[in-house]
Design brief:
The chain has 95 residues and is mainly alpha-helical. Helix content is 82%, strand content 0%. The protein has one domain (2-86). It is flat and about 50 Å long.
Length: 95
Amino acid sequence: MRIRIAAAALVAAAGLCALTAWLFAWPLEKALYLAPIIVAFVGCVVGILVFWGRVAYVQVRESRNPRLLVAIAVGVLVLVALLTVLGVNVPREGG
């Protein structure tokens, strides 16, 4: 059982390194040297996504009107995506 887990972890780490090398157009050797950092970064990102997903789920579940809350959240995401696609630049503070 432990050998299967270790093999799966090795395959996942190698896959993350290969994906990173492809995304950044790095040589695979460079990505393999950075494997501990790449794996730790992906672990942190997944952990944060799980945490905030759980927070959002609990908030929606405990609200009085969950459909309204979800509709507002989806509306905000659609608005941000639409403004990004249209190329709208928000003015910066201080000039």
